[in-house]
Amino acid sequence: MELREISPYELQYSNAFRAVGKEWMLICAEDANGINAMTASWGFLGQLWNRPAAICFIRPQRFTYHMADGSERFSLCFFGDGYRKELGYFGTASGRDGDKSAATGMHYGHIESVPVVEESNLILLCRKLYVDDIKEGNFKDTSLIDTCYPERDFHRVFVCEVEKCFVRQ
Q1: SS3 letters for 37-91?
Q2: Nearest one of 39, 114, 35 to 67, comparing CA atoms
Q3: Which of 7, 24, 28 minimizes the C-alpha distance to 111?
Q4: What is the CA radius of gyration of the chain?
Q5: Region 28-41 average pLDDT
Q6: Residue 105 main-chain phi, psi, to 5 deg
Q7: Residue 141: is its pLDDT beyond 80?
Q8: CA pair distance 17, 99, nearest whole angstrom
């Protein structure tokens, strides 16, 4: 990988709304059985508790859920528009059924022992700071429950410090 480390404060992503919500990202985590990544289009980048932070959301039935929940660190990997088909596959196929990286021709690797997807344009190494579950009783706009959670499979929220940031040269 030809990546260069920068401070998260140097990041030149002009639109985090587009990067997360429209271009998508992969949450890449690892456990004793291996590495897996899943597509995510819900998340936040910003500042929290005097640290550069990322917040991501994973539903409990996702294969990556237990990997991310059971590890201290994982990565958020961004690609831009060039990998839409592959990211679509990472979002619809399950790591329980096979190796998504092999199926898409993408490659898993590590940076400082944190799992990553090597084709990424931007990699955020994240360390969990706070974890909680979205709770049905806390919704102020209850229409979101039926719209976003018809199965009542509420996401787990992972608030992370962005420890390091790597960009493709």
Answers
A1: EEEECCEEEEEECCEEEEEEEECCCCHHHHHHHHCCEEEEEECHHHHHHHHHHHH
A2: 35
A3: 28
A4: 15
A5: 96
A6: 80, 10
A7: yes
A8: 29
Q: How far is CA 93 from CA 9, 21, 38, in A?
A: 34, 19, 9
pTM for the complete prediction? 0.94
Which pLDDT value is given to residue 89? 96
For the chain, give the number of residues.
Answer: 169
- Using CA of residue 128, residue 130, residue 132, residue 134, what is the dihedral sign? negative
Neighbours of 113 (CB within 10 A): 8
3-state helix, strand, coil in the chain (%, to 5): 25, 40, 30
Q: How far is CA 32 from CA 49, 67, 95, 153, in A?
A: 31, 9, 14, 26
Amino acid at 118: E
Residue with tokens 């790597």: 166
- Both tokens assigned to 121: 């344009």
pLDDT digits (tens, 9 = 90+) for 52-93: 999 999 999 999 999 999 999 999 999 977 899 999 999 999
Work out the pLDDT band at 13, boundaries 50, 70, 90. Answer: low
Single-letter amino acid, residue 54: A
